[in-house]
Amino acid sequence: MKCAVDLHIHSCLSPCGDEGMTPNNICNMARLKELDLIAVADHNTARHLPAIQRVARGLGLGLLPAMELTTREEVHLLSYFPTVDMALEFSEEIYPHLPPVPNRPELFGEQLELDDQDEIVRREEKLLLSALDLSVDQLTRRILEKGGLAVPAHINRGSNGILQALGFLPPDAPFSALEVTVGLPLPHKGIPDHLFQFHSSDAHYLENILEPVEFLELPSPDAAGFFDRFGQKSV
Q1: Helix axes 84-94, 49-59, angle to 10 degrees
Q2: Residue 233 scores a pLDDT above 90
Q3: Residue 108: what pLDDT?
Q4: Quick one: which H or E segment has residue 108?
Q5: Is 160 helix (H, G, I), strand (E, B) or coil?
Q6: CB atoms within 10 A of CB 187
Q7: Whole-prediction pTM value?
């Protein structure tokens, strides 16, 4: 089926995410914009996904559990998982790989974890924007070993896109797809033709969540359908 998607959205748990990016606001805006499937991918954590999943289920909105991880080389890597529990398990596994740098809300913004009523549960004290002490290769392989899929984020935008950070796309990396920023040039740089390319909003504000302009053909508008479409890569 043809599914309207936005597979890279930040919540208010990301320090760069607006405080209006609450579980209810995100899911209701996605529904208002007639999206079928979203992925909320906060920086280096999956702790907001249970609340977001509860809200999404109540609205009949598909959720693809995700995180946006920062590698040792400062590459942003989207990690997608079949279930929220799997994403949470991996989130807890990588948390010790974040340096012990405290967040400074006056500089980076609050890191608010909310429940499904948009009430504050906790404030994350460790800065989630920091780079993990794991390389692109190490992190990609760990994601796959845990049953997830690894997708380089906004490859043609900014210093955290893999083409800028590394200067090339690793030829043997078992990536599942590539996220490409609309409206910016995409130098080929060894990008294989078989790698699927998609666009998403990387929204930090509600108004930036995509309209129904990006579509995927999926068996079902949920994580199971996404994984059936893209499959599990070998490590």
Answers
A1: 160
A2: no
A3: 93
A4: helix 105-108
A5: coil
A6: 10
A7: 0.95
